[in-house]
Structure to design on (484 residues):
C-alpha cells in the first residue's frame, strides 16, 4: 500500500476535525450534564431528606404508641416521652442544640449569626388523639427539621440572620386532662398555675405526671417558661388541613388566614339512681334521658342558630350570619354512673366542643345553650352543672407571614411541577392549633397541607409523599428567603 503526502494530510485533517468535534461535543455535553447533574443532585438531596426521610420518620413516629393496634400518645405518657426522645435525636441530626422544658416540650435551636436577634419559632405537637393518624402534629415538626437539615448539610445553617427554634409541644389535643395547649400555652405565658392541679381519669395531676417523668415543676418555674415577646420574631406552623378544600381544589398547599374560636364544656347531669325494673316511669328522675334531650337541643341550636338567637339580646346580625356558616358543635364523650344495664344512672357527664369564627357569636350560643339546659333540667327534676374547661378566641394570622408563606408555597410547587397556574388558596381553620396559644406571644402564620378526603383524627388520615415534600420545600424556601 502506497501512502502519499496528500493522504497523510487528509488523515491528519480528519483526525483534527474529529478531535475538535469530540472536544466541542464533550464540552457541550459536560455543560448540559453538569447543569442537569447539579439540578438532579440538588433535587436528589432534597427528595431524599425532605420527602423520603421525612415520610419514613412520620411512619416511625406513628408506631410509638401507648396502645396495641392503634396510635395513642397523650400528655407525658410513656409513648409520648419516647417520641420526644426520638424527635430530640432528629433535632440534633439537623444540627440543633436541644433541651426539654418543665412542661415536657422538646426544643431544638440554632443561633445563626446573631444569637441576640429575635428568633423565629416553628412548631407543632407530638401528642395525639385516641386511635389517631400519623400526620396530625408530627408533620409540622418533621418538615421543619427536614428543612433545617438541608441547610445544615449545605453549610448555611450557621449563617442564618436570626435564631431558629423548633418546638415539639407536649400537649395540644387535650385528651388526658381536657385542657388543650398545655405545652404551647406555657411557652406563650397564658397557662394558669391552676392547670398544674388538673386531674386525669386516674386522679393524677399535671404536676404529678411531670414528676413521674423526673420533671419538677412549681408555680414559680411555670412562669419562667414564658418567652419574652421581645425575643421572638414570629411563629409558623405546618399542619394537615383536616378538611377537604385543598383536595377539592387539587392543590397540595394552602395558607391559613385564621383559626376559629373554641369553647369546651363539661355538662354534669345528676338524678336519682334506682333499680331499672322497680321504679315507675312517672317517678323517675333520669339523668340519661335528660342528657339525651340536652344533646338534641345542642344539635338543633348549632344547626339553626337564627331560630334561637335574638339580634338585640345576644349579638348583632353580622355575628348571627357568621354563625350560620361557621358554627359547629360536638358531643364527643359521654359517661354514666354506675354504668350498669339494670340501673337507672345517678349521674351522666358529657362534653361539648363548640367552635365558631365569630367570638361574640360563640359567646351568644353558649349563653343561650346554658339557659336552655337549665330550663330542661328543671323541667325534668334533675340538677345540671356546666363547667367551662377551655376557651380560645378566634385568631387572625399575620398578613406579612402569610404573604411570605404564600410565596414559599408557590415557589415549592413551581420547583416540583414547573408551571403553577393557580394561586395558593387562603383558608380558615375550624380546628384548633398551637398557633392559637402562640398568638398571645407573637405574630403567627400557618401552612396547610392537603389530606386525603379531609379525614383526620383517624387512622385513615393520609398525606401524599409528594405533598410532604412540597410542605418541607416551602419551609426551606421560607427560611432561605426570609432568614438566610
Amino acid at each position: 500500500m502506497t501512502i502519499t503526502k496528500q493522504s497523510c494530510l487528509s488523515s491528519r485533517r480528519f483526525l483534527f476535525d474529529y478531535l475538535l468535534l469530540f472536544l466541542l461535543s464533550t464540552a457541550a455535553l459536560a455543560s448540559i450534564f453538569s447543569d442537569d447533574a447539579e439540578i438532579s443532585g440538588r433535587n436528589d438531596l432534597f427528595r431524599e431528606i425532605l420527602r423520603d426521610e421525612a415520610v419514613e420518620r412520620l411512619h416511625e413516629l406513628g408506631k410509638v404508641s401507648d396502645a396495641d393496634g392503634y396510635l395513642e400518645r397523650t400528655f407525658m405518657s410513656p409513648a409520648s416521652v419516647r417520641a420526644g426522645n426520638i424527635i430530640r435525636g432528629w433535632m440534633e441530626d439537623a444540627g440543633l442544640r436541644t433541651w426539654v422544658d418543665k412542661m415536657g416540650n422538646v426544643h431544638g435551636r440554632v443561633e445563626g449569626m446573631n444569637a441576640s436577634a429575635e428568633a423565629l419559632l416553628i412548631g407543632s405537637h407530638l401528642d395525639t388523639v385516641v386511635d389517631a393518624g400519623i400526620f396530625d402534629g408530627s408533620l409540622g415538626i418533621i418538615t421543619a427539621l427536614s428543612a433545617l437539615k438541608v441547610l445544615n448539610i449545605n453549610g448555611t445553617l450557621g449563617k442564618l440572620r436570626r435564631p431558629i427554634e423548633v418546638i415539639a409541644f407536649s400537649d395540644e389535643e387535650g385528651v388526658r386532662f381536657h385542657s388543650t395547649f398545655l405545652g404551647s400555652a406555657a411557652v406563650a405565658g397564658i397557662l394558669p398555675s391552676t392547670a398544674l392541679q388538673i386531674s386525669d381519669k386516674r386522679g393524677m395531676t399535671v404536676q404529678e405526671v411531670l414528676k413521674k417523668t423526673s420533671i419538677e415543676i412549681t408555680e414559680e418555674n411555670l412562669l419562667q417558661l414564658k418567652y419574652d415577646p421581645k425575643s421572638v420574631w414570629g411563629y409558623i406552623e405546618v399542619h394537615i388541613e383536616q378538611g377537604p378544600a385543598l383536595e377539592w381544589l387539587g392543590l397540595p398547599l394552602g395558607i391559613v388566614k385564621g383559626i376559629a374560636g373554641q369553647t369546651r364544656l363539661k355538662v354534669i347531669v345528676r338524678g336519682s339512681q334506682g333499680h331499672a325494673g322497680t321504679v315507675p316511669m312517672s317517678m323517675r328522675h333520669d339523668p340519661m334521658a335528660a342528657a339525651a334531650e340536652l344533646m338534641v337541643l345542642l344539635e338543633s341550636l348549632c344547626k339553626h342558630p337564627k331560630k334561637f338567637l335574638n339580634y338585640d339580646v345576644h349579638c348583632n346580625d353580622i355575628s348571627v350570619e357568621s354563625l350560620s356558616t361557621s358554627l359547629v358543635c360536638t358531643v364527643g364523650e359521654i359517661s354514666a354512673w354506675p354504668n350498669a344495664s339494670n340501673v337507672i344512672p345517678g349521674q351522666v357527664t358529657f362534653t361539648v366542643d363548640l367552635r365558631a369564627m365569630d367570638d361574640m357569636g360563640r359567646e351568644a350560643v353558649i349563653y343561650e345553650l346554658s339557659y336552655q339546659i337549665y330550663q330542661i333540667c328543671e323541667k325534668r327534676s334533675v340538677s345540671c352543672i356546666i363547667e367551662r374547661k377551655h376557651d380560645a378566641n378566634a385568631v387572625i394570622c399575620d398578613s406579612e407571614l402569610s404573604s411570605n408563606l404564600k410565596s414559599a408555597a408557590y415557589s415549592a410547587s413551581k420547583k416540583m411541577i414547573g408551571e403553577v397556574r393557580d394561586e395558593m388558596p387562603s383558608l380558615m381553620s375550624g380546628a384548633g392549633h398551637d398557633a392559637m396559644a402562640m398568638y398571645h406571644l407573637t405574630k403567627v402564620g400557618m401552612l396547610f397541607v392537603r389530606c386525603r378526603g379531609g379525614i383526620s383524627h383517624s387512622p385513615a388520615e393520609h398525606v401524599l409523599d409528594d405533598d410532604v415534600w412540597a410542605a418541607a420545600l416551602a419551609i426551606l424556601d421560607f427560611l432561605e428567603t426570609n432568614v438566610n
